[in-house]
Specification:
Layout (H helix, E strand, L loop, with lengths): L32 E4 L2 E2 L1 H6 L8 H14 L5 E3 L2 E2 L9 H12 L2 E6 L2 H4 L3 H14 L3 E4 L4 E2 L8 H28 L12 E4 L2 E7 L1 H15 L4 H10 L5 H7 L16 H9 L7 E3 L2 E2 L9 E2 L6 E3 L9 H13 L16 E3 L6 E4 L10 E4 H4 L11 E2 H21 L1 H50 L4 H34 L4 H10 L8 H7 E10 L6 E8 L3 E6 L6 H5 L9 H9 L1
Parallel strand pairs: 1-3, 1-5, 2-4, 5-6, 14-18
Antiparallel strand pairs: 6-7, 8-9, 10-13, 11-12, 15-16, 16-17, 18-19, 19-20
The structure holds zinc ion.
Length: 592
Protein backbone atom coordinates (compact mmCIF):
# COMPACT_ATOMS: atom_id res chain seq x y z
CA UNK A 1 0.00 0.00 0.00
CA UNK A 2 1.26 3.34 -1.00
CA UNK A 3 0.17 6.25 1.12
CA UNK A 4 -1.44 9.09 -0.84
CA UNK A 5 1.10 11.78 -1.41
CA UNK A 6 -1.27 14.68 -1.13
CA UNK A 7 -0.47 15.16 2.53
CA UNK A 8 3.24 15.27 1.85
CA UNK A 9 4.63 18.78 1.93
CA UNK A 10 4.96 19.98 -1.61
CA UNK A 11 6.18 23.47 -1.01
CA UNK A 12 7.55 25.56 1.75
CA UNK A 13 5.18 25.51 4.71
CA UNK A 14 5.40 28.95 6.16
CA UNK A 15 3.90 28.38 9.58
CA UNK A 16 2.54 25.23 11.15
CA UNK A 17 -1.22 25.64 11.58
CA UNK A 18 -1.00 25.80 15.37
CA UNK A 19 1.05 28.93 14.98
CA UNK A 20 -1.78 30.71 13.17
CA UNK A 21 -2.87 33.51 15.52
CA UNK A 22 -6.21 33.64 17.29
CA UNK A 23 -7.98 36.91 16.97
CA UNK A 24 -7.70 38.99 20.12
CA UNK A 25 -9.55 42.22 20.55
CA UNK A 26 -7.47 45.20 19.52
CA UNK A 27 -4.76 43.18 17.77
CA UNK A 28 -3.11 44.73 14.74
CA UNK A 29 -4.18 43.08 11.50
CA UNK A 30 -2.58 43.21 8.08
CA UNK A 31 -4.43 44.74 5.16
CA UNK A 32 -5.18 41.40 3.54
CA UNK A 33 -6.30 38.57 5.76
CA UNK A 34 -7.85 35.14 5.58
CA UNK A 35 -10.56 34.50 8.11
CA UNK A 36 -10.62 30.94 9.42
CA UNK A 37 -13.79 30.50 11.35
CA UNK A 38 -14.33 27.57 13.70
CA UNK A 39 -17.50 27.48 15.75
CA UNK A 40 -18.80 25.11 18.37
CA UNK A 41 -22.20 25.20 20.02
CA UNK A 42 -22.89 24.03 23.54
CA UNK A 43 -24.72 20.98 22.15
CA UNK A 44 -21.77 20.13 19.98
CA UNK A 45 -19.51 20.35 23.00
CA UNK A 46 -21.63 17.80 24.87
CA UNK A 47 -21.47 15.44 21.95
CA UNK A 48 -17.75 15.94 21.62
CA UNK A 49 -17.00 12.99 23.86
CA UNK A 50 -18.22 10.54 21.22
CA UNK A 51 -17.22 12.51 18.17
CA UNK A 52 -14.60 15.20 18.25
CA UNK A 53 -14.61 15.97 14.53
CA UNK A 54 -16.35 19.25 15.32
CA UNK A 55 -14.22 20.18 18.27
CA UNK A 56 -12.56 23.55 18.01
CA UNK A 57 -9.16 21.89 17.92
CA UNK A 58 -10.17 19.63 15.08
CA UNK A 59 -11.75 22.46 13.09
CA UNK A 60 -8.62 24.54 13.59
CA UNK A 61 -6.49 21.68 12.29
CA UNK A 62 -8.56 21.31 9.17
CA UNK A 63 -8.83 25.03 8.45
CA UNK A 64 -5.21 25.78 9.25
CA UNK A 65 -3.94 22.96 7.06
CA UNK A 66 -6.04 24.10 4.15
CA UNK A 67 -4.97 27.72 4.51
CA UNK A 68 -1.33 26.85 4.49
CA UNK A 69 -1.47 24.33 1.69
CA UNK A 70 -3.28 26.83 -0.48
CA UNK A 71 -1.13 29.74 0.55
CA UNK A 72 -4.03 31.85 1.70
CA UNK A 73 -2.59 35.15 2.93
CA UNK A 74 -2.36 35.99 6.61
CA UNK A 75 -4.74 33.47 8.17
CA UNK A 76 -6.33 34.36 11.51
CA UNK A 77 -8.66 32.22 13.61
CA UNK A 78 -11.90 33.87 14.61
CA UNK A 79 -13.43 31.44 17.06
CA UNK A 80 -16.85 31.26 18.67
CA UNK A 81 -16.96 28.53 21.24
CA UNK A 82 -20.27 27.50 22.75
CA UNK A 83 -22.54 29.61 20.55
CA UNK A 84 -25.40 28.31 18.46
CA UNK A 85 -25.47 28.61 14.69
CA UNK A 86 -29.03 29.89 14.69
CA UNK A 87 -27.88 33.27 15.89
CA UNK A 88 -25.46 35.63 14.27
CA UNK A 89 -24.87 37.44 17.53
CA UNK A 90 -21.47 35.81 17.96
CA UNK A 91 -18.56 38.01 19.05
CA UNK A 92 -15.83 36.78 16.74
CA UNK A 93 -18.16 36.26 13.83
CA UNK A 94 -19.29 39.87 14.10
CA UNK A 95 -15.73 41.12 14.10
CA UNK A 96 -14.94 39.01 11.04
CA UNK A 97 -18.00 40.36 9.21
CA UNK A 98 -17.02 43.91 10.12
CA UNK A 99 -13.62 43.24 8.62
CA UNK A 100 -15.30 41.97 5.48
CA UNK A 101 -17.09 45.30 5.37
CA UNK A 102 -13.78 47.15 5.44
CA UNK A 103 -12.53 45.16 2.45
CA UNK A 104 -9.57 43.64 4.22
CA UNK A 105 -10.78 40.04 4.12
CA UNK A 106 -9.67 38.08 1.04
CA UNK A 107 -10.86 34.63 2.09
CA UNK A 108 -13.41 33.34 4.52
CA UNK A 109 -13.05 29.68 5.30
CA UNK A 110 -15.29 27.38 7.35
CA UNK A 111 -15.31 23.61 7.78
CA UNK A 112 -18.91 23.39 6.56
CA UNK A 113 -21.86 25.65 5.97
CA UNK A 114 -23.46 24.81 9.30
CA UNK A 115 -20.39 26.26 11.09
CA UNK A 116 -21.12 29.50 9.37
CA UNK A 117 -24.78 29.58 10.32
CA UNK A 118 -27.96 27.61 10.33
CA UNK A 119 -30.32 30.27 9.10
CA UNK A 120 -30.28 29.80 5.35
CA UNK A 121 -31.64 33.19 4.59
CA UNK A 122 -29.11 34.96 6.74
CA UNK A 123 -26.30 32.72 5.48
CA UNK A 124 -27.32 33.49 1.94
CA UNK A 125 -27.33 37.18 2.67
CA UNK A 126 -23.65 36.98 3.57
CA UNK A 127 -22.40 34.42 1.10
CA UNK A 128 -24.47 35.56 -1.87
CA UNK A 129 -24.70 39.27 -1.36
CA UNK A 130 -22.12 40.64 1.00
CA UNK A 131 -19.12 38.47 0.16
CA UNK A 132 -19.25 38.82 -3.62
CA UNK A 133 -19.67 42.57 -3.22
CA UNK A 134 -16.58 42.73 -0.97
CA UNK A 135 -14.67 40.38 -3.25
CA UNK A 136 -14.31 37.73 -0.59
CA UNK A 137 -13.63 34.15 -1.59
CA UNK A 138 -15.86 31.96 0.51
CA UNK A 139 -14.96 28.35 1.18
CA UNK A 140 -16.86 25.67 3.07
CA UNK A 141 -14.47 22.77 2.87
CA UNK A 142 -16.62 19.78 3.63
CA UNK A 143 -19.56 21.09 1.57
CA UNK A 144 -17.39 21.59 -1.50
CA UNK A 145 -18.31 25.23 -1.64
CA UNK A 146 -15.75 27.56 -3.14
CA UNK A 147 -16.92 30.80 -4.65
CA UNK A 148 -13.85 30.90 -6.91
CA UNK A 149 -14.86 27.65 -8.50
CA UNK A 150 -18.07 28.98 -9.95
CA UNK A 151 -21.68 29.11 -9.08
CA UNK A 152 -22.71 25.50 -9.25
CA UNK A 153 -21.68 24.59 -5.75
CA UNK A 154 -23.75 27.43 -4.43
CA UNK A 155 -26.91 26.58 -6.28
CA UNK A 156 -28.95 25.44 -3.29
CA UNK A 157 -28.16 28.63 -1.50
CA UNK A 158 -28.76 30.67 -4.57
CA UNK A 159 -32.23 29.21 -4.81
CA UNK A 160 -33.02 30.07 -1.27
CA UNK A 161 -31.59 33.49 -1.86
CA UNK A 162 -33.63 34.04 -4.92
CA UNK A 163 -36.71 33.34 -2.93
CA UNK A 164 -35.59 35.63 -0.20
CA UNK A 165 -34.83 38.36 -2.68
CA UNK A 166 -38.15 37.97 -4.37
CA UNK A 167 -40.01 38.13 -1.11
CA UNK A 168 -38.06 41.13 0.07
CA UNK A 169 -38.44 43.00 -3.17
CA UNK A 170 -42.13 42.28 -3.37
CA UNK A 171 -42.53 43.55 0.17
CA UNK A 172 -40.78 46.78 -0.73
CA UNK A 173 -42.78 47.21 -3.91
CA UNK A 174 -45.95 46.58 -1.99
CA UNK A 175 -45.01 49.18 0.61
CA UNK A 176 -44.51 51.76 -2.12
CA UNK A 177 -47.79 50.71 -3.71
CA UNK A 178 -49.62 50.97 -0.43
CA UNK A 179 -48.26 54.47 0.14
CA UNK A 180 -49.37 55.55 -3.33
CA UNK A 181 -52.77 53.97 -2.84
CA UNK A 182 -53.28 55.67 0.49
CA UNK A 183 -52.38 58.98 -1.12
CA UNK A 184 -55.25 58.55 -3.57
CA UNK A 185 -53.22 57.81 -6.62
CA UNK A 186 -55.07 55.30 -8.82
CA UNK A 187 -53.30 51.99 -8.41
CA UNK A 188 -54.99 50.11 -11.15
CA UNK A 189 -52.73 49.69 -14.14
CA UNK A 190 -55.79 49.69 -16.36
CA UNK A 191 -57.80 52.81 -16.82
CA UNK A 192 -61.49 51.85 -16.63
CA UNK A 193 -63.49 51.80 -19.83
CA UNK A 194 -64.92 55.28 -20.31
CA UNK A 195 -61.72 57.02 -19.29
CA UNK A 196 -58.31 57.61 -20.74
CA UNK A 197 -55.08 58.76 -19.16
CA UNK A 198 -54.60 62.50 -19.18
CA UNK A 199 -51.78 63.08 -21.69
CA UNK A 200 -50.47 65.90 -19.47
CA UNK A 201 -50.59 63.96 -16.22
CA UNK A 202 -50.36 60.20 -16.46
CA UNK A 203 -51.77 59.75 -12.96
CA UNK A 204 -55.08 61.38 -13.88
CA UNK A 205 -58.00 60.02 -15.82
CA UNK A 206 -60.08 62.07 -18.20
CA UNK A 207 -63.36 61.11 -19.87
CA UNK A 208 -63.08 59.29 -23.18
CA UNK A 209 -66.34 60.57 -24.62
CA UNK A 210 -66.93 57.72 -27.05
CA UNK A 211 -66.69 54.91 -24.53
CA UNK A 212 -68.22 57.05 -21.74
CA UNK A 213 -71.42 57.22 -23.77
CA UNK A 214 -71.46 53.42 -23.92
CA UNK A 215 -71.08 53.30 -20.14
CA UNK A 216 -74.04 55.67 -19.72
CA UNK A 217 -76.08 53.53 -22.09
CA UNK A 218 -75.22 50.41 -20.08
CA UNK A 219 -76.51 52.07 -16.90
CA UNK A 220 -79.66 53.27 -18.71
CA UNK A 221 -80.36 49.80 -20.00
CA UNK A 222 -79.93 48.37 -16.55
CA UNK A 223 -82.49 50.88 -15.27
CA UNK A 224 -84.96 49.63 -17.84
CA UNK A 225 -84.62 46.18 -16.32
CA UNK A 226 -82.27 44.59 -18.83
CA UNK A 227 -79.82 42.11 -17.34
CA UNK A 228 -76.09 42.02 -18.19
CA UNK A 229 -76.54 39.23 -20.72
CA UNK A 230 -79.08 41.20 -22.71
CA UNK A 231 -77.08 44.38 -22.46
CA UNK A 232 -74.04 42.52 -23.83
CA UNK A 233 -76.12 41.30 -26.78
CA UNK A 234 -77.35 44.81 -27.51
CA UNK A 235 -73.83 46.17 -27.39
CA UNK A 236 -72.73 43.52 -29.85
CA UNK A 237 -75.61 44.43 -32.13
CA UNK A 238 -74.73 48.10 -31.81
CA UNK A 239 -71.13 47.25 -32.71
CA UNK A 240 -69.82 49.13 -29.68
CA UNK A 241 -66.09 48.78 -29.02
CA UNK A 242 -65.53 46.45 -26.06
CA UNK A 243 -63.17 47.58 -23.26
CA UNK A 244 -60.07 45.64 -24.30
CA UNK A 245 -60.46 46.68 -27.93
CA UNK A 246 -60.97 50.29 -26.94
CA UNK A 247 -57.92 50.18 -24.65
CA UNK A 248 -55.78 48.81 -27.47
CA UNK A 249 -57.12 51.52 -29.79
CA UNK A 250 -56.16 54.16 -27.25
CA UNK A 251 -52.67 52.78 -27.07
CA UNK A 252 -52.72 50.61 -23.94
CA UNK A 253 -51.05 47.26 -24.51
CA UNK A 254 -53.51 44.40 -23.91
CA UNK A 255 -52.41 40.90 -23.01
CA UNK A 256 -55.03 39.14 -25.10
CA UNK A 257 -56.67 41.13 -27.89
CA UNK A 258 -60.37 40.34 -28.35
CA UNK A 259 -61.55 38.24 -31.30
CA UNK A 260 -63.83 40.98 -32.52
CA UNK A 261 -63.93 44.66 -31.58
CA UNK A 262 -67.35 44.10 -29.99
CA UNK A 263 -66.63 41.01 -27.89
CA UNK A 264 -69.02 41.95 -25.09
CA UNK A 265 -69.83 39.44 -22.38
CA UNK A 266 -72.23 39.62 -19.44
CA UNK A 267 -69.34 39.65 -16.96
CA UNK A 268 -67.84 42.75 -18.60
CA UNK A 269 -71.21 44.48 -18.27
CA UNK A 270 -71.67 43.49 -14.62
CA UNK A 271 -68.17 44.74 -13.81
CA UNK A 272 -68.93 48.10 -15.39
CA UNK A 273 -72.23 48.37 -13.51
CA UNK A 274 -70.42 47.86 -10.20
CA UNK A 275 -67.54 50.32 -10.64
CA UNK A 276 -67.66 53.30 -8.30
CA UNK A 277 -64.98 54.85 -10.48
CA UNK A 278 -67.80 56.06 -12.74
CA UNK A 279 -68.95 58.33 -9.92
CA UNK A 280 -65.64 60.13 -10.20
CA UNK A 281 -64.03 58.28 -7.31
CA UNK A 282 -60.77 56.44 -7.09
CA UNK A 283 -61.18 53.04 -5.47
CA UNK A 284 -57.97 51.45 -4.30
CA UNK A 285 -57.16 48.09 -2.77
CA UNK A 286 -59.95 46.25 -4.57
CA UNK A 287 -57.78 43.19 -5.01
CA UNK A 288 -54.87 41.55 -3.30
CA UNK A 289 -52.50 38.67 -3.95
CA UNK A 290 -51.99 35.82 -1.53
CA UNK A 291 -48.22 35.90 -1.98
CA UNK A 292 -45.57 37.43 -4.16
CA UNK A 293 -45.47 34.14 -6.06
CA UNK A 294 -49.13 34.21 -6.98
CA UNK A 295 -50.27 35.90 -10.15
CA UNK A 296 -53.92 35.58 -9.23
CA UNK A 297 -55.60 38.71 -7.94
CA UNK A 298 -58.21 38.00 -5.29
CA UNK A 299 -61.07 40.34 -4.51
CA UNK A 300 -60.76 42.30 -1.31
CA UNK A 301 -63.76 42.68 0.91
CA UNK A 302 -65.37 46.09 0.17
CA UNK A 303 -64.56 47.13 3.75
CA UNK A 304 -60.89 47.01 2.72
CA UNK A 305 -61.40 49.38 -0.19
CA UNK A 306 -60.06 52.87 0.18
CA UNK A 307 -62.15 55.38 -1.72
CA UNK A 308 -61.07 58.87 -2.73
CA UNK A 309 -64.01 60.93 -3.85
CA UNK A 310 -64.16 63.22 -6.87
CA UNK A 311 -60.70 62.53 -8.17
CA UNK A 312 -61.89 62.70 -11.77
CA UNK A 313 -64.97 63.61 -13.77
CA UNK A 314 -68.00 61.42 -13.13
CA UNK A 315 -69.73 59.56 -15.96
CA UNK A 316 -72.73 58.32 -13.98
CA UNK A 317 -74.72 60.27 -11.37
CA UNK A 318 -75.07 59.02 -7.80
CA UNK A 319 -78.84 58.34 -7.97
CA UNK A 320 -78.54 56.17 -11.06
CA UNK A 321 -75.56 54.37 -9.63
CA UNK A 322 -77.29 53.67 -6.31
CA UNK A 323 -80.41 52.41 -8.01
CA UNK A 324 -78.41 50.16 -10.29
CA UNK A 325 -76.68 48.66 -7.27
CA UNK A 326 -80.08 47.93 -5.73
CA UNK A 327 -81.32 46.37 -8.95
CA UNK A 328 -78.18 44.26 -9.21
CA UNK A 329 -78.52 43.13 -5.59
CA UNK A 330 -82.09 42.06 -6.29
CA UNK A 331 -81.01 40.33 -9.53
CA UNK A 332 -84.17 40.00 -11.54
CA UNK A 333 -84.63 36.54 -12.87
CA UNK A 334 -86.50 35.77 -16.01
CA UNK A 335 -89.39 33.40 -15.41
CA UNK A 336 -89.95 30.10 -17.16
CA UNK A 337 -92.56 31.90 -19.22
CA UNK A 338 -89.94 34.40 -20.37
CA UNK A 339 -91.84 37.26 -18.77
CA UNK A 340 -89.98 39.42 -16.30
CA UNK A 341 -91.83 40.57 -13.22
CA UNK A 342 -91.90 44.34 -13.14
CA UNK A 343 -91.56 44.27 -9.36
CA UNK A 344 -89.16 41.40 -8.84
CA UNK A 345 -86.58 42.33 -6.29
CA UNK A 346 -88.82 45.21 -5.22
CA UNK A 347 -91.95 43.53 -3.88
CA UNK A 348 -91.90 42.17 -0.33
CA UNK A 349 -94.34 40.46 1.99
CA UNK A 350 -95.51 42.96 4.58
CA UNK A 351 -95.71 40.30 7.29
CA UNK A 352 -92.56 38.24 7.05
CA UNK A 353 -90.37 40.52 4.97
CA UNK A 354 -89.61 37.84 2.38
CA UNK A 355 -89.47 38.62 -1.30
CA UNK A 356 -92.63 38.18 -3.34
CA UNK A 357 -91.88 35.96 -6.30
CA UNK A 358 -93.77 36.20 -9.54
CA UNK A 359 -95.09 32.96 -10.85
CA UNK A 360 -96.09 32.80 -14.44
CA UNK A 361 -96.68 30.09 -16.91
CA UNK A 362 -96.04 30.19 -20.63
CA UNK A 363 -99.29 28.27 -21.18
CA UNK A 364 -101.38 30.80 -19.32
CA UNK A 365 -102.13 34.35 -20.42
CA UNK A 366 -99.99 37.06 -18.80
CA UNK A 367 -103.07 38.36 -16.93
CA UNK A 368 -102.86 35.27 -14.75
CA UNK A 369 -99.32 35.92 -13.58
CA UNK A 370 -99.27 36.45 -9.85
CA UNK A 371 -97.04 37.21 -6.94
CA UNK A 372 -96.80 35.08 -3.80
CA UNK A 373 -94.69 35.29 -0.67
CA UNK A 374 -91.54 33.19 -0.90
CA UNK A 375 -91.37 32.97 2.91
CA UNK A 376 -94.81 31.39 3.07
CA UNK A 377 -93.77 28.81 0.48
CA UNK A 378 -90.81 27.95 2.72
CA UNK A 379 -93.18 27.74 5.68
CA UNK A 380 -91.83 30.82 7.38
CA UNK A 381 -93.40 30.96 10.81
CA UNK A 382 -94.16 34.69 10.58
CA UNK A 383 -96.22 34.21 7.50
CA UNK A 384 -99.60 32.52 7.59
CA UNK A 385 -100.71 33.33 4.08
CA UNK A 386 -99.38 33.33 0.56
CA UNK A 387 -100.15 37.05 0.19
CA UNK A 388 -101.31 36.15 -3.28
CA UNK A 389 -101.90 39.04 -5.64
CA UNK A 390 -102.44 39.03 -9.38
CA UNK A 391 -99.87 40.90 -11.36
CA UNK A 392 -102.38 43.08 -13.20
CA UNK A 393 -103.99 44.15 -9.95
CA UNK A 394 -100.64 45.04 -8.43
CA UNK A 395 -99.67 46.94 -11.59
CA UNK A 396 -102.84 48.99 -11.38
CA UNK A 397 -102.48 49.77 -7.69
CA UNK A 398 -98.89 50.81 -7.89
CA UNK A 399 -99.54 52.95 -10.96
CA UNK A 400 -102.38 54.62 -9.15
CA UNK A 401 -100.26 55.47 -6.13
CA UNK A 402 -97.50 56.82 -8.27
CA UNK A 403 -99.92 58.95 -10.28
CA UNK A 404 -101.48 60.16 -7.10
CA UNK A 405 -98.19 61.26 -5.62
CA UNK A 406 -96.60 62.67 -8.76
CA UNK A 407 -99.62 64.65 -9.91
CA UNK A 408 -100.15 66.06 -6.45
CA UNK A 409 -96.50 66.96 -6.14
CA UNK A 410 -96.53 68.60 -9.55
CA UNK A 411 -99.50 70.78 -8.65
CA UNK A 412 -98.75 71.59 -5.02
CA UNK A 413 -95.04 71.16 -4.67
CA UNK A 414 -94.60 73.47 -1.68
CA UNK A 415 -97.35 71.82 0.36
CA UNK A 416 -96.12 68.42 -0.68
CA UNK A 417 -92.64 69.20 0.63
CA UNK A 418 -93.97 70.51 3.92
CA UNK A 419 -96.12 67.47 4.37
CA UNK A 420 -93.27 65.09 3.76
CA UNK A 421 -91.02 67.02 6.07
CA UNK A 422 -93.57 66.88 8.84
CA UNK A 423 -94.10 63.17 9.00
CA UNK A 424 -90.98 61.97 7.23
CA UNK A 425 -88.74 62.03 10.25
CA UNK A 426 -91.38 60.32 12.33
CA UNK A 427 -91.89 57.57 9.78
CA UNK A 428 -88.27 56.72 9.24
CA UNK A 429 -87.89 56.42 12.98
CA UNK A 430 -90.78 53.96 13.07
CA UNK A 431 -89.37 51.98 10.16
CA UNK A 432 -86.05 51.75 11.89
CA UNK A 433 -87.65 50.55 15.10
CA UNK A 434 -89.68 47.93 13.25
CA UNK A 435 -86.61 46.57 11.48
CA UNK A 436 -84.70 46.47 14.73
CA UNK A 437 -87.52 44.61 16.41
CA UNK A 438 -87.62 42.06 13.61
CA UNK A 439 -83.88 41.62 13.86
CA UNK A 440 -84.00 40.99 17.60
CA UNK A 441 -86.79 38.46 17.12
CA UNK A 442 -84.87 36.60 14.44
CA UNK A 443 -81.72 36.56 16.52
CA UNK A 444 -83.45 35.20 19.60
CA UNK A 445 -85.15 32.51 17.54
CA UNK A 446 -81.76 31.49 16.12
CA UNK A 447 -80.42 31.11 19.67
CA UNK A 448 -83.55 29.22 20.69
CA UNK A 449 -83.06 26.82 17.79
CA UNK A 450 -79.52 26.14 18.93
CA UNK A 451 -80.89 25.05 22.28
CA UNK A 452 -83.62 22.92 20.75
CA UNK A 453 -81.19 21.12 18.48
CA UNK A 454 -78.88 20.54 21.43
CA UNK A 455 -81.78 19.09 23.43
CA UNK A 456 -83.01 16.72 20.76
CA UNK A 457 -79.43 15.65 20.19
CA UNK A 458 -79.16 14.72 23.87
CA UNK A 459 -82.50 12.91 23.71
CA UNK A 460 -81.25 11.00 20.73
CA UNK A 461 -78.04 10.01 22.54
CA UNK A 462 -79.97 8.88 25.62
CA UNK A 463 -82.32 6.86 23.43
CA UNK A 464 -85.44 8.92 24.05
CA UNK A 465 -85.53 9.91 20.39
CA UNK A 466 -85.02 7.52 17.50
CA UNK A 467 -82.35 8.27 14.93
CA UNK A 468 -84.94 8.65 12.22
CA UNK A 469 -87.04 11.09 14.21
CA UNK A 470 -83.93 13.01 15.25
CA UNK A 471 -82.77 13.40 11.66
CA UNK A 472 -86.16 14.61 10.57
CA UNK A 473 -86.44 17.15 13.37
CA UNK A 474 -82.91 18.46 13.12
CA UNK A 475 -83.20 18.92 9.37
CA UNK A 476 -86.29 21.03 9.88
CA UNK A 477 -84.70 23.19 12.55
CA UNK A 478 -81.57 23.64 10.56
CA UNK A 479 -83.52 24.78 7.51
CA UNK A 480 -85.36 27.29 9.67
CA UNK A 481 -82.12 28.55 11.11
CA UNK A 482 -80.57 28.99 7.70
CA UNK A 483 -83.54 30.99 6.54
CA UNK A 484 -83.39 33.17 9.65
CA UNK A 485 -79.69 33.76 9.27
CA UNK A 486 -80.20 34.99 5.73
CA UNK A 487 -82.98 37.22 6.98
CA UNK A 488 -80.91 38.76 9.76
CA UNK A 489 -78.19 39.63 7.28
CA UNK A 490 -80.74 41.37 5.09
CA UNK A 491 -82.30 43.18 8.05
CA UNK A 492 -78.94 44.33 9.29
CA UNK A 493 -78.30 45.76 5.82
CA UNK A 494 -81.67 47.52 5.83
CA UNK A 495 -81.05 48.99 9.24
CA UNK A 496 -77.67 50.30 8.20
CA UNK A 497 -79.24 51.85 5.10
CA UNK A 498 -82.10 53.37 7.07
CA UNK A 499 -79.79 54.78 9.67
CA UNK A 500 -77.77 56.70 7.17
CA UNK A 501 -80.69 57.66 4.99
CA UNK A 502 -81.49 61.28 5.35
CA UNK A 503 -84.81 62.35 4.14
CA UNK A 504 -83.55 63.63 0.86
CA UNK A 505 -86.49 65.50 -0.50
CA UNK A 506 -84.71 67.39 -3.20
CA UNK A 507 -83.48 64.19 -4.76
CA UNK A 508 -86.98 62.78 -4.70
CA UNK A 509 -88.46 65.93 -6.17
CA UNK A 510 -85.92 65.86 -8.97
CA UNK A 511 -87.21 62.42 -9.90
CA UNK A 512 -90.85 63.41 -9.50
CA UNK A 513 -90.41 66.41 -11.81
CA UNK A 514 -89.23 64.04 -14.51
CA UNK A 515 -92.52 62.13 -14.24
CA UNK A 516 -95.33 64.61 -13.81
CA UNK A 517 -97.60 62.80 -16.21
CA UNK A 518 -97.32 59.06 -15.68
CA UNK A 519 -99.47 56.90 -17.91
CA UNK A 520 -97.79 53.55 -17.77
CA UNK A 521 -95.39 51.71 -15.49
CA UNK A 522 -91.97 51.07 -16.94
CA UNK A 523 -88.94 49.56 -15.25
CA UNK A 524 -87.03 52.84 -15.53
CA UNK A 525 -89.88 54.78 -13.95
CA UNK A 526 -90.14 52.28 -11.13
CA UNK A 527 -86.41 52.22 -10.58
CA UNK A 528 -86.24 55.97 -10.40
CA UNK A 529 -89.17 56.42 -8.07
CA UNK A 530 -89.80 53.28 -6.06
CA UNK A 531 -87.57 51.63 -3.52
CA UNK A 532 -89.83 48.90 -2.21
CA UNK A 533 -93.39 47.65 -2.33
CA UNK A 534 -94.94 45.79 0.59
CA UNK A 535 -97.93 43.58 0.04
CA UNK A 536 -100.32 42.90 2.90
CA UNK A 537 -102.58 39.93 3.30
CA UNK A 538 -106.05 40.03 1.76
CA UNK A 539 -108.66 41.21 4.23
CA UNK A 540 -112.04 39.54 3.78
CA UNK A 541 -113.71 40.98 6.87
CA UNK A 542 -116.73 43.12 6.10
CA UNK A 543 -117.68 40.90 3.17
CA UNK A 544 -115.33 42.62 0.75
CA UNK A 545 -111.88 41.57 -0.33
CA UNK A 546 -109.41 44.35 0.33
CA UNK A 547 -105.66 44.27 0.17
CA UNK A 548 -103.27 46.93 1.34
CA UNK A 549 -100.20 47.81 -0.72
CA UNK A 550 -97.48 50.08 0.66
CA UNK A 551 -95.28 51.83 -1.86
CA UNK A 552 -91.98 53.06 -0.43
CA UNK A 553 -90.58 55.80 -2.61
CA UNK A 554 -86.90 56.36 -3.14
CA UNK A 555 -85.37 58.86 -0.70
CA UNK A 556 -88.61 59.52 1.20
CA UNK A 557 -90.12 56.15 2.00
CA UNK A 558 -93.80 55.52 2.50
CA UNK A 559 -96.10 58.31 1.35
CA UNK A 560 -99.56 56.88 1.19
CA UNK A 561 -101.47 53.70 1.84
CA UNK A 562 -104.03 52.05 -0.38
CA UNK A 563 -106.80 49.61 0.22
CA UNK A 564 -108.48 48.06 -2.69
CA UNK A 565 -111.25 45.76 -3.69
CA UNK A 566 -110.52 43.74 -6.82
CA UNK A 567 -114.05 44.43 -8.12
CA UNK A 568 -113.48 48.14 -8.31
CA UNK A 569 -109.95 48.95 -7.43
CA UNK A 570 -110.26 52.64 -8.07
CA UNK A 571 -113.15 53.12 -5.69
CA UNK A 572 -111.54 51.23 -2.86
CA UNK A 573 -108.08 52.46 -3.45
CA UNK A 574 -109.14 55.96 -2.63
CA UNK A 575 -109.68 54.71 0.93
CA UNK A 576 -111.31 57.94 2.00
CA UNK A 577 -111.03 57.47 5.75
CA UNK A 578 -107.46 56.32 5.61
CA UNK A 579 -105.43 58.69 7.77
CA UNK A 580 -102.17 57.39 6.28
CA UNK A 581 -103.03 58.88 2.90
CA UNK A 582 -101.59 62.37 3.23
CA UNK A 583 -102.02 63.84 -0.25
CA UNK A 584 -105.83 63.94 0.13
CA UNK A 585 -106.09 65.91 3.36
CA UNK A 586 -103.35 68.18 2.14
CA UNK A 587 -105.23 68.79 -1.06
CA UNK A 588 -108.36 69.63 0.90
CA UNK A 589 -106.48 71.87 3.22
CA UNK A 590 -105.25 73.70 0.24
CA UNK A 591 -108.66 74.27 -1.21
CA UNK A 592 -110.12 75.63 2.02
ZN1 LIG B 1 -94.69 36.32 3.90
Amino acid sequence: MIQPTAAAPTGPVAVPYHRIPDYIKGMALPDEITVLYPRLSRDDRDKEKEDDSNSIVNQKKILGKYAMENHLPNPVFFTDDGISGTTFERPDFKVAIELVGTGRVKNFVVKDMSRFGRDYIQVGLYTEVMFPEANVRFIALYDNVDSDKGADDLTPFRNIMNEWYARDTSKKVRAVFRAKGMAGEPMSTHVPYGYVRDPNDKKRWVVDEESAEVVRQIFRWCMTGLGPGHIATRLQEARADCPSYRAAKLGTPVSRPPETPWAWRDTIVSDILARAEYLGHTVNFKTYRKSYKSKKALKNDPSQHVIFENTHEAIVDQDTFDRVQQIRAGKRRRNSSGRVGLFSGMAYCADCGSKMHMSSNANRPPEQDNYTCSGFRLKNRDCGSSHYIRRVILDGLVLEQIQHVTSFAARYEREFVELLKRDGADKSRKELLASKRKLTQAESRIAELDNIVQRIYEDNISGKLTDERFMKLSRGYEAEQRELTAQTAELAGQIAAQEQKTLDLSRFLAQVRKHTCVEKLTPTLLNELVERIEIHVTDKSGGKRTQQIDVYFNFVGLIGKLDFAPQSPAAQAAGGANPGNPPKPAAQALQS
